[in-house]
Amino acid sequence: MTHVPYVPSPPPVSPRAQELSRRLRETIDKYKQENPSVTALDIRQALSMSVPSGSVPRRVAVVAALGLAVLGGMVAFFLSSEPGNADVLKPVLIVALMVVIGVIVVVKSRSGPV
Do 22 and 59 sit in the same domain of this protein? Predict the structure, then answer.
């Protein structure tokens, strides 16, 4: 069976986005004329700081996923350490893993690559 990856095409650029892009270029060019020592890194950092991003909620979700994984591992460890409870270990680990994967998938689908 052959796997053909599907990469959706980006949505068309709106006229407002084109106008904003033009204005940003003009502003950056003007700033570069006034401050010749500005670097491309400075511009990239400034642009990334000016655009609201989902990095804080994404970090919180990743930390929550890791916390759930640790909690699931601890529960599985304590349940398996008691005699006769080893059968509970697998379902607890599977549920913890499913929660972690679910959180990661939701975060990636909402905010792009992690």
Answer: no
Give the model's pLDDT for residue 30: 95
Q: Quick one: 47 and 58 in the same domain?
A: no
Contact 54, 110 (CB under 8 A): yes
User: Is 88 in the same domain as 62?
Assistant: yes
Q: For 74-111, write each residue's pLDDT tens digit.
A: 777 776 666 666 666 667 777 777 777 777 777 666 65
Cα distance between residue 5 and residue 38, in whole Å: 40
Q: Is 92 exposed, middle or buried (0-12, 13-18, 19+ CB in 10 A)?
A: buried
